Structure formats: structure tokens, C-alpha cells
Amino acid sequence: MNLSNQSVLVIGGAGYIGSHVVLALCEQDYDVTVFDNLSTGYEINVDSRAQLIKGDILSNDDLQIAFNQSYDAVFHFAALKAAGESMLEPGKYATVNITGTINILNQMVESDVQIIVFSSTAAVYGMPEYLPVDENHPLNPINFYGFTKFEIERLLHWYSDLKGICFGVLRYFNAAGYDTQGRIQGLE
Questions:
Q1: DSSP bridge partners of 156
Q2: Active-site residue list
Q3: Residue 24: closest CA among 54, 52, 1, 47
Q4: Mean pLDDT taken over the chain
């Protein structure tokens, strides 16, 4: 489906990966709105052609404000992402990653938005059983961060079956580079 010239919401669009997706979407003439709490992203990373709404995925009120506009699709990049920290603070990761995503999905259903692209991780695979790892590899995360992303992928299947949400999942092995302020990003 071509969404060019259509309206998209990029949740977590001020972070490293999200801001690069926003740039690419703006370059293709999408009408882009970024929703971000700026806890790990930076306002300076958001392309000037995009609208920025400051808010948190844990706040249904904030999400309702963001979804006051009509969107053709949602891109979801908002999450806690440090695998080591996730093993020390699983409750924090479950709340932000899983509960936050449930809030997004419920708001999508309420607002009749049926397309989501979800930023997952290769951590859902766990220890490789063969190389190269492909999409048919068994899913067996070995850290809590990977577990949260795996559970979200399972939720997406359920919301697809029950609510008609169409989804795509991106599983990165490593995304690294420099942000607009020259700092190295993505090397957790």
C-alpha cells in the first residue's frame, strides 16, 4: 500500500531510528506527526516538516490528543531498549513496552486506524540455532527486553485477528550511527 501524501503518526519519532524514518517519510511527502515524550529522543532530531506532539504512551489522555487527527498508519518506535537494564528492572520494561503498546493499539481501534509498523528487535530470536538467522528462526528471547518485544508481536497477531489491525514488524540486529548532535546512538 502506498501511503505517500497520506497522514502518518510516528510514535517515538524523536529517537535515533524514529527520526530517520520521519526524515524518509517527509522526503516522500507524507503528512507526518511525531508523538514522543522526549525521554531518550531529542526535539532537534525531528524534521521541521513534521508536527511534534509531546506525550507519553502510558497516558491514554496524551494518546487521545495525538489521535484527535486522522491517520492512515502508525509507526511505533517508542520503547525502553537496554537489554541489561531489562533484566534488573523487568516491571519498568513490561509497563513501558507492553502496556504502552496496548494503549496504542486500543487507541488505534477507537480511532479506526488499521495499519501499524512495529519496531521490534532481533533479540526475539535469542541464541542463534543457525546462521545466518532468518525470519524462520525459532523465537526464544534470552533477556526481558527481547521478551517484551516478542509479547508485543504476539499481541499484534491477536489484534489483527480480533480487530483487523494490519501490521508489519521490523527486527533489527543492530542500528547504530550518529544523531543530529554528533553523539553515537544505538550501541546499547
A1: none
A2: 145
A3: 47
A4: 93
